């Protein structure tokens, strides 16, 4: 179970980065309802990623093995499929839904949209880490807040660009 302090630590880094990206949009602010939908879309992308990863583990027992049991080539293969293809692919699919929206009319819009999707993903992932590994407490979420959450945002910037 996750207490309110750990829950706050899980979401605050994303909220700070969301606010930062939003205020950097100087030409035309994006509608809050659309950004909220994209953030929720990122949460959905995380759920899709979890389901696909679970399915992959059921179909290919290799993916059930821990990284410590694998050689370098197997680790790279596992990361390529689980992180790059499944996680980034699910975020890209959500981003793809916005391309025809009338509000998508400036270059920076794609960066804003992609970061909101990426941080929706990262927020749910962080909450799930906090629940699953609550025994590590504050330090796990501080580390993820300093490394994992900004990484998702940066990947969102690249995807949007």
Helix content: over 70%
Major β-sheet annotation: none
By DSSP, the count of extended strands is 0
**What's the helix count?**
6
Q: Uncertain spans, ≥5 residues at pLDDT below 50?
A: none
By helix and strand content, what is the structural category? mainly alpha
Order of helices and strands: HHHHHH
Distance between the termini: 38 Å
Radius of gyration over C-alpha positions, nearest whole angstrom: 17 Å
Shape: globular
Strand content: under 5%
Write the layout of secondary structure elements.
Blueprint: H1 4-23, H2 32-59, H3 72-96, H4 107-132, H5 137-146, H6 148-160
Structure report:
With 161 residues, the chain is an all-alpha fold. The protein has helices at residues 4-23, 32-59, 72-96, 107-132, 137-146, 148-160. The protein starts with a helix and ends with a helix. 76% of the residues lie in helices and 0% in strands.
């Amino acid at each position: 179970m996750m207490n309110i302090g750990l829950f706050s630590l899980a979401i605050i880094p994303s909220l700070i980065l969301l606010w930062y990206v939003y205020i950097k949009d100087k030409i035309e602010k994006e509608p809050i309802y659309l950004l909220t939908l994209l953030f929720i879309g990122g949460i959905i992308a995380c759920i899709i990623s979890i389901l696909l990863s679970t399915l992959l583990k059921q179909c290919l027992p290799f993916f059930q093995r821990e990284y410590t049991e694998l050689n370098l080539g197997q680790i790279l293969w596992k990361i390529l499929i689980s992180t790059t293809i499944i996680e980034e692919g699910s975020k890209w699919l959500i981003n793809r839904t916005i391309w025809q929206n009338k509000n998508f009319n400036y270059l920076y819009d794609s960066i804003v949209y992609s970061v909101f999707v990426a941080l929706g993903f990262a927020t749910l992932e962080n909450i799930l880490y906090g629940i699953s590994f609550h025994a590590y407490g504050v330090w796990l979420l501080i580390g993820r807040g300093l490394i994992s959450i900004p990484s998702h945002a940066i990947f969102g910037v690249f995807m949007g660009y």
